[in-house]
Amino acid sequence: MTVQEELSVLLKHKGIGPSGSKSLKQEDIARLRVLLLDQSCAKVSKATILTALLTLPPNDAEKEYLHFLKQNFRSEIDEDLWGFFDDAYADAKQRSINRVIAHESLAFDEASELLAELFDAAPEFQLAAFLEAERLKRETYDENLAFLQVMQAQITPVYADIPLLIEFGDSYDGCNRNPSLNLFVACILAAAGYPCLVQGAEWHAPKEGLTHHAILKKGGKNPYVSVEEAAAQLADPSIGWAYLDQSVVDPKVHAMRQMRREMVKRPFLATFEKMLQPIRAQKNYLLTQYTHKHYKLEIAKLVQNHCSFEAALHIKGIEGTSMINPTDTEAVFITPSEVKELTLNGTHWGFSQPLKKLEKASPWYVHAIGMSLINTGDHDYSEFITYQCVAILHHLLGVDPKTAVYEVQQAIASGEALSRWERLP
After folding, report:
1. Which residue of 113, 150, 252, 278 has the lowest C-beta tally within 10 Å?
2. Residues 256, 257, 262, CA angle at the centre, nearest 5°?
């Protein structure tokens, strides 16, 4: 194990969140003192674990270490990090970060200005510390609104000449335990007459699992089309679906991937990057997901008030995706006029097949599953993927479930779903 890997292990132990974090023991702290002075360890990781120690309630060993560190930081940590312990060594950005570490929430204007500055002109360790401190403190609604709007301002939406668009908001770090099938759900829905957009990246921390990008590449597709090209694919009646990569849509945030790997913890960037809506249609429908219950209604209200859509479905999906478990999936249905909590249950329509967990998802294996599903519909997952399509059409667009089942089955049986896959460049 490298020293950087050792530091990452300590971060996974301590910095994962306000409720899941565990305290460091004396032997952990002894090793941390060595790692903090090791120049081969990433400064982002050092800043992140210092932020976690300063933000979360300490045990006795951590309290003693922090007291020692505050008296001896000049000899214990890199000079760039001294500002965490003494404002005399901190610039304005670091002083604002220290306020968040001290559990002080920022006003909307302050949060907007600080994130914009950290994006544009700050060392990555400061941005990482801010992201960690906000997540451990818990972001307020005003802070989250500021962060969403700063990220929205970085992209210029392109309008596609189509009556409607369903956008999938899966987490960009992919799947490890389950086959990620939303590319094929999007293809089938497009074949049924409902244009769909899927987004993602080649890889993302912390999971670094199997991504839509990897599955597309395995299928011989180009994951790097421009936003304009994707809009044209959506408007093409023989295709009707598209994939957009973060490297194309938001290269600034995409360039932070290594920083996020060194942070270990998933920051609020992961919450908002998947709901920026880079392509708009006449009517827009958003399918997105949440993991932690704390964000269920808060993010739903942000979507309601600050995203452009006809309706949105915010679900506790399978392994960080917007794939819906056929039994008892918590969700929030959102329109500009209402936020309504739901429990989605496919057993009422005769769907009960779960998604089987995998030892290790591979692009080859998941691509083979998807091709079977869109080619013949004859596969162990055929009921599962039919339910995904039906649930989306019913809960987002109000399509009658029986009509939705028929449309999905026809899209596959007619060969149209396979044709849509093959026509994607």
Report:
1. 252
2. 100
